[in-house]
Write a structure and sequence with these properties.
heterotrimer; A alpha/beta (about 325); B mainly alpha (about 280); C alpha/beta (about 325); A: about 325 residues; alpha/beta; Rossmann fold; eight-stranded mixed β-sheet; four-stranded antiparallel β-sheet; 9 helices; about 30% helix; C: alpha/beta
Chain lengths: ~325, ~280, ~325
């Protein structure tokens, strides 16, 4: 069994909120509450959840842009947070990220050449100016842009093209892992399709591994092999995409999938009675979904269910 | 780069404050430069016989109580004001901006320390402290530069820090970090160019204040020393003649007001021109 | 009775490239209580159409044609008359609740604003009506006191406040411009249900603007597809979605990732419309979609496409529409 490219073990992240009273302790918000998963080389791993679930925090920690409060992140077998800064930076060429905002993730003051070459410039082995430019131009062609675009500024491109520039930047060091944090969420549907196709072509060509974070379920279903559903900092269900989408087990997953408006106008949605839930963080001992769960019983308010294999997926629920 | 300057210029021409302020500021600098090569009369020429003359063909704005040509004194005074303000701003930028950038990049106790140092400096009323500094070091142009410069440091530090902090939050900074770039390089390559326009605007404001400060110090006799003329000194000397020859006070006074006004207008216009135009989105 | 009748509307904007028609001769109509959807991608003009109806276009724009609300031409109204229409007979909810709400005013005051403006009610009556509106949008006053500020609410709750503001004066027409795009999918479900309930209960007309075909499918009875300021297809939602005629509409549907496409281990690629939406000042001659269209014929590039009746009130503007299959 080949070792996983990425392995996350019991990851927790706490944030300190501003003090409510002068001498009281600053309250703690637990954004990630014990996350475990593995990503196999060459696969696409999806992370789905709504706002506040912690997926962006998770993305930053996996990219070692933020330190966890507890737990470990292994990349190619090495624990990222026990490495020296130097060693960590040397490893960074192997994992890169594509961000959500095609307008904000590119420095408006820099030309495309500098933007895309940046990950190269940080490497200790420096390329000659000519080789550097050639490498950037080659990568731009790979993502469907023009070689001559190196001289332009971000504002001269559309949203979809800027996202291609961002992908080129992520690709230029030939990483094994690319984390795509809501990379197509800000794009129009037809442009989104182009960018998704590009990402899949690149994956085949370079045997890339993707961690694909999105709130858009149809995109995740299409692009990923394995998916994890996160609610308030905890993975509540995880399994093969095909199985999970066809037969969701966790009440939250079912709620999520049912909420997506059907594109067939003759299939009007069934209204389901909803429980009003109060927002809690994951730190209490109960199941985080309990306040909103129609199937909740007493045990749900007392014991946080752990992720266990039930049927085809791993689910954290007392009632599956 | 050059293309952008041309763009800024063409947009600026549509902005009234930019044009009017720009013209005044430009005149001011040109006149100050001019004084190096030519003045209508040498300012050292004291000619009591010609004292307190009214404006005429020989002495364009008349003469002061020593018979010196007022116009010549004004333009040489302009030169001194420019130099003092310029170098003092340079000190402020040179020390203040790095401090602000470091505070924004490091956060934590480094940030706290720099900000408290800022607060500390702000706590001293600037004129009184300038007096103190020149009293200790001795009056003169150089020391007034130091005094004014010291008070520009916390201004630029605070302004740079604020602007840098909002740049740090942007996604392309995250992208730079994820490629492994360190905070120093990020501050230099990503943050600084994005706070540049704000710094330019602040500089024009500080410049105006610098001119005022220099005039104030010279008025008190602590700045540029005679025989070098300065607007503040001219104002001071004009006091005794206020009823006899009020024009002695009016000329330098108007010069100061006009210059400061011009610089402020230009700064306002520049801010309008630079900000929205840079935020170009599709 | 026709609630809204837009006739030959053209919106021209002054740009650095000269005056440009960002909306070109569109016709639209809806009955009282009807639910109309406007769908299209960025730059198609759907938001502009909404702003044209409610009279909030930027100053450097000029309009021609007619916008008839219950028979009266809004384009002939004076600014004061339009102020009496806005919030009162036509109301709008926007995409970003955080920026559409005033952060330094309480939610109670903001909801009351249009009540105070349009209905001459006493203080107590206003307060009662505001409380009632909060209940109607699912924000019971005992949990959401009127002196709360927008930042104390979640995105979905703020959107409910905006809806309360919009329906306060019981308008004849409610325009919702991407009301759920910035919200989570479960919250979106609740907000869309709320909008539909309010619309059904009060009999007001609804214009739902969205790029999300699922949202349009679930909330509208008639739909209009727009592209670069032109109408491409209109008709009953069920008709258009099941038997789309215009190649662009077809392309849009095909580009959406949908379950069941990836049946093999090697994923099929999504169908994509080649190229991208042209910039507004570079709109080509003839049909603006011609150079991206796999069904383009010669006349498409030179002449404006004709109206083609597909039956059952379904109409497309195309030289080569898809067959009804």
């Amino acid at each position: 069994m080949k070792p996983p490219l990425v392995k996350v073990v019991n990851l927790t992240k706490d944030y300190h909120l501003p003090r409510q009273k002068l001498f009281a302790k600053a309250p703690v918000f637990r954004a990630l509450n014990g996350i475990d998963f593995e990503v196999a080389r060459g696969s696409s791993f999806g992370i789905v959840g709504e706002s506040g679930c912690g997926k962006s925090t998770l993305a930053r920690i996996v990219m070692a842009l933020d330190k966890p409060t507890g737990g470990e992140v292994y990349f190619e077998g090495r624990e990222l947070f026990s490495l020296s800064t130097k060693a960590l930076n040397a490893l960074r060429k192997n994992f890169q990220m594509v961000f959500q905002d095609p307008y904000g993730s590119l420095n408006p003051r820099k030309k495309v050449l500098a933007i895309v070459a940046e990950p190269l410039d940080v490497l200790p082995e420096k390329l000659t100016t000519g080789r550097r430019q050639e490498r950037v131009e080659d990568t731009l062609e790979e993502v469907g842009l023009n070689r001559r675009d190196v001289d332009k500024y971000p504002h001269e491109f559309s949203g979809g093209q800027r996202q291609r520039i961002a992908i080129a930047r992520a690709l230029i060091t030939r990483p094994s892992l690319i984390v795509a944090d809501e990379s197509v969420s800000a794009l129009d549907v037809s442009v989104q399709a182009q960018v998704l196709n590009l990402m899949m072509d690149l994956q085949e060509k370079y045997n890339l591994t993707y961690i694909f974070i999105s709130h858009d379920l149809s995109v995740v279903e299409y692009v990923t092999d394995v998916v994890a559903v996160i609610y308030l900092g905890k993975i509540v269900e995880q399994g093969k995409t095909r199985d999970l989408f066809r037969m969701p087990l966790h009440p939250y997953t079912k709620t999520l999938l049912a909420a997506v408006p059907d594109i067939d106008p003759s299939k009007k949605r069934q209204r389901t009675a909803r429980k009003e839930g109060i927002f809690t963080d994951g730190a209490s001992g109960a199941c985080p979904f309990q306040p909103r769960c129609r199937e909740a019983t007493e045990i749900c308010g007392q014991v946080n269910p752990s992720l266990e294999l039930k049927g085809n997926q791993r689910v954290a629920c007392h009632h599956v | 780069m050059a293309r952008r300057l041309v763009e800024i210029f063409t947009h600026g021409l549509k902005n009234r404050s930019f044009v009017i302020g720009g013209i005044i500021t430009l005149l001011f600098f040109l006149i100050a430069l001019l004084s190096y090569v030519w003045t209508p009369h040498a300012i050292e020429n004291i000619s009591i016989a010609n004292k307190l003359k009214l404006p005429g063909s020989v002495y364009w704005l008349g003469t002061d109580h020593f018979g010196r040509d007022i116009f010549s004194m004004l333009i040489v005074g302009a030169r001194n004001s420019v130099i003092v303000a310029f170098v003092a701003i340079g000190i402020g930028l040179g020390f203040g901006v790095p401090l602000g950038l470091i505070a924004a990049a490091r956060k934590g106790w480094v940030d706290e320390f720099i900000m408290r140092f800022n607060d500390f400096t702000f706590a001293f009323p600037s004129i009184i402290s300038a007096i103190m500094i020149t009293a200790i070091l001795g009056p003169g142009a150089v020391n007034s530069i130091i005094a004014i410069g010291i008070f520009n440091i916390p201004v630029f530090a605070r302004v740079s820090r604020g602007a840098a902090q909002s740049v740090w939050k942007r996604e392309f900074i995250l992208a730079a970090r994820s490629s492994g770039k360190g905070a120093f390089k990020i501050s230099l390559e990503h943050v600084l160019p994005n706070i540049f326009s704000m710094l330019i605007v602040q500089t024009t404001i500080q410049f105006a204040l610098g001119i005022l400060a220099e005039a104030g110090l010279s008025y008190l006799g602590l700045g540029t020393q005679p025989p070098a003329p300065s607007w503040g000194k001219m104002l001071n000397e004009a006091q005794t003649f206020l009823y006899l020859a009020p024009q002695l006070a009016i000329y330098p006074g108007v010069a100061i007001v006009l210059t400061v006004l011009g610089l402020n207008l230009f700064g306002d216009g520049l801010r309008d021109v630079l900000d929205p135009k840079l935020r170009r989105s599709r | 009775m026709t609630l809204l009748n837009i006739q030959n509307l053209t919106v021209t904007i002054d740009t650095v490239h000269g005056p440009i028609n960002i909306i070109e001769q569109i016709d639209l109509s809806m009955a009282a209580g009807a639910k109309l959807g406007i769908v299209g991608e960025s730059g198609c003009g759907k938001s502009i159409t909404a702003l044209a109806i409610i009279g909030l276009l930027p100053d450097k724009s000029s309009l021609s044609g007619k916008i008839l609300l219950n028979g009266e031409n809004l384009l002939a109204f004076t600014p004061e008359e339009m102020c009496r229409v806005r919030g009162n007979r036509v109301a709008m909810i926007f995409q970003e609740p955080m920026t559409a709400l005033n952060p330094v005013q309480t939610i109670g005051n903001q909801i009351a604003e249009s009540l105070i403006l349009h209905l001459k009610l006493g203080k107590k009556d206003i307060r009662d009506r505001v409380r009632q509106l909060m209940e109607n949008v699912g924000l019971p006053v005992r949990r959401f006191p009127l002196d709360l500020y927008p930042h104390q609410l979640s995105g979905g709750q703020r959107q409910r406040v905006m809806i309360a503001m919009a329906i306060a004066c019981e308008p004849d027409l409610l325009i919702a411009d991407e009301p759920t795009t910035a919200l989570d999918v479960t919250v979106q479900e609740q907000i869309l249900d709320l909008i539909l309930d309010l619309v059904d209960q009060s009999g007001m007309g609804l214009i739902m603007i969205s790029h999300d075909l699922g949202v349009i499918a679930q909330t509208t009875e008639t739909v209009v597809v727009m592209y670069t300021g032109n109408l491409f297809e209109t008709g009953p939602t069920v008709e258009v979605f099941k038997h789309m005629a215009h190649p662009y509409t077809d392309g849009l549907f095909s580009a959406i990732p949908r379950p069941g496409i990836s049946l093999n281990s090697k994923r099929d690629r999504l169908y994509t419309i080649p190229g991208q939406v042209p910039e507004i000042h570079l709109r080509p001659e003839g049909c603006s979609f011609a150079d991206r269209c796999h069904r383009a014929l010669d006349p498409c590039r030179t002449q404006a496409p004709p109206v083609v009746d597909m039956g059952k009130n379904h109409v497309a503007w195309c030289f080569n529409p898809l067959d009804r299959n």
